[in-house]
Structure to design on (144 residues):
């Protein structure tokens, strides 16, 4: 079974960073609000036509870029594939790898959702609010 997710997101906002690589400072948490932007991940392969919704808020965090986010969990194998893909995927800002997406936690729904927030190593520049943020990663494969 081979599945992959690809996402592109054009945000005219700010950024708040991640975990695994590219992170500085402690991980923090924030409640979902209407300023988060929905980023639908479109599956291909076995789960073509299905989506996983990721919610993000990004911008200036001190002198760095910060990212807060979470995803709405699904069930069964689709959830396993989402978690596996996000563990290996990363955020990209105009072609530059920023931080791993492995910090994104699953949430059951928007009501009461809590986002994980990270501060990245990337310095925030005033023109970044006009740059393109995307999420990229290798195909997800699970073996049982």
């Amino acid at each position: 079974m081979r599945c992959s997710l690809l996402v592109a997101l054009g945000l005219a906002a700010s950024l708040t960073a991640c975990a695994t690589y590219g992170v500085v400072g402690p991980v923090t948490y924030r409640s979902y609000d209407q300023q988060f932007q929905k980023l639908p991940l479109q599956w291909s392969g076995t789960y073509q036509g299905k989506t996983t919704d990721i919610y993000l808020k990004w911008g200036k965090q001190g002198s760095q870029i910060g990212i807060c986010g979470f995803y709405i969990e699904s069930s069964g194998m689709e959830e396993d594939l989402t978690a596996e893909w996000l563990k290996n995927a990363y955020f990209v800002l105009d072609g530059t790898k920023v931080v791993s997406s492995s910090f994104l936690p699953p949430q059951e729904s928007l009501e009461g959702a809590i986002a994980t927030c990270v501060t990245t190593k990337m310095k925030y520049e005033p023109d970044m609010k006009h740059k393109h943020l995307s999420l990229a990663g290798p195909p997800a494969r699970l073996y049982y």
